[in-house]
Amino acid sequence: MQDSYHQLIKKHWSIVIIFVLAPILLCAVLPILPTHDDWAGTTKPDFNPFFIKEHFFFYGYHWRPFDTWIGYIVGRNPQALWPKFNHILVVIGHLLCSLAVYRLLAVLGFNKAARNIATIFFFLTPATMATVSAIDSQNQVYALTFGIISFLLYIKLKKGKYAVWLTLVFLATLFKENGLMWVWMCPILAFGFDFIDKKTLKKDLLLGTALMAVYALAILLLPKDITIHPEYVPDNFKTIKNIIKFLFLSFTTVDYIYLLHYPNRNLLLAAISFLLATPFMYFCFLCYIKQFADKKIVCTMIGLIIAVAPHLGTVFSMMHVYAGLAMITIIAAYSISLINHIKPMAFAFLLWVVTAVLIDIHLIDESIKSGRVGKNMAQEAIQKTGKPVKSVYVIIIEDDYPKLSSFCVIPNEAFGWGQAVRYETNYKWPEAIEDTTIERSADAIKNAKKLGLETLNKKQYDCVWIINHEDIDVIKK
C-alpha cells in the first residue's frame, strides 16, 4: 500500500505540491483589502433588492451574472464576507484551474516531468499574481477553468459532445467575455494535437462562430445603459503597447515592482530576480524554438493569440495574462518534453521556483500595504468627521503618485473615493458620496477648501472630505 502511494506521489508530485501550497496562498492573500476597481465592480456588496433585474442580466457593458451573485452574497454581511469570500473563491478557482491544466497536459500526451513542472509553473508564476491576489478576479479564473474543461470534454465525448462543449463555453463566457474565445480555441487546439481532422475543424469553427453571433445578438437585445470607458476604446498605439506588455509579462519572470514602480524601484534586485529565473525561461521558450514550427505549437500559438485578443485591442494589464496562461503552459511543457538531460533543467527550475515564490511574496505584500493605506485613510476620515453623516462631497487633489496594477495603488484609489469609509462603518454611513478631482497646483489646497465651503453653503452635503495624497482634511457645517 505504501509503495502504491509512493508511486502515485512520484507520478503526480505537482498535484501534491499545489494542494499543500493552496492553503498557504489563501492565508497570504486574505489580508488584502479592496482598492481601485474593487469599489466599483459588481462583486462588491450589493444591497439592491432588485439586483436580479438591474444587475444579473446586464451591468454596464458587461454580462457577468456570477459576479452579481457574489455581490449579493457578500452584501448580506459585508464586514464578515467581503473580501474574504472573494479571496476564497479566487484561490479555489486557481487551484481547480491548475488541476485542469495538469489534466490538459496529460491528455495532450506530455511526459511526467513536462506536465508536473509546467503545472507548477502555471500555479506559481508571478504572471498570475495580479489575478490570484485580486478581489474581483474570480471571473477570469473560472472563465479559464471552464474553458479548459470544455476542451477536455470536447475531445473526449462522442455522444452529446457539442451540447456539452457549447454549454461549458457559454458558462465560461458568463464568468467573463473572453471565455467565448474557447469556441475557436477548442477546435484549433484539437486539430493541432490530431484529435480532429481538417473537415471537423472547419465545421466546428463555423459552429463556434455561430455561437458568437448568438451571444452578440443577446448582448444587443438585453436591456442596458452602456457607458464605454475611454480606456476600452481601441487605437493602434494602445494595441502595440498592449502587445509589448503581453510579451514581457508572459515570457519573462522578474520582480515587476522593483523594475517598474518608481517609488520602490531597485534595479539591482530586479536584475537578480530576472537572472535567476532566466535559465528556466530559456528552457521553456527559447531552447527548442526551432521546433516551434510543429503543428502542435503553431495551433497553440494561434490559440494564445485568440485567448488574449479581446484584451490586446482594449485594456491589457497584468491580470489579463491569465487568459493566455494555459496556452503558454502548453508551450513550456512542449519544450520541457524535448529535453534529454534533465538535471540542468531541474536545477534551473528550482532556481525559478525560489525566485517566483520571493516575487509572489513581494507582490502580495505590496497589495496588502495598498489596502491598508485605504483603510487608514478611512479611519482618519471617520475620526475627523466625528459623527455619522448622510452625505459627503469628496474633493480629490489630482495625485501624480505612480501606480502599478493592483499591487501599488494611488492612495485616493485605495480610499475608493470615499467608499472605504462606508466599508469601515459596515455600510451604515454615509448614504451618498459624490466626488470630483481638481488639478494639482501650488494653490490646490486653498482651491479645494474654497470649493468645499461653497458646496456646504449650498446645503447639498453634510460634510466635505479633501483628499491630498494620503492626507484628509474635513470641512463640516
Explain this structure.
It is built from 21 helices and four strands. It has helices at 2-11, 13-29, 51-56, 65-74, 78-81, 84-107, 112-124, 129-132, 138-156, 161-175, 182-192, 198-221, 236-251, 256-260, 267-285, 295-312, 325-337, 342-385, 411-414, 419-424, 444-457; strands at residues 391-397, 432-438, 463-468, 471-476. Strands 2-1-3-4 form a four-stranded mixed β-sheet, sandwiched between helices. α7 (112-124) runs parallel beside α18 (342-385). The longest helix is centred in the C-terminal third of the chain and has 44 residues, at 342-385. The radius of gyration is 24 Å and the shape is globular.
Provide a brief overview of the structure.
The chain is mainly alpha-helical and 477 residues long.
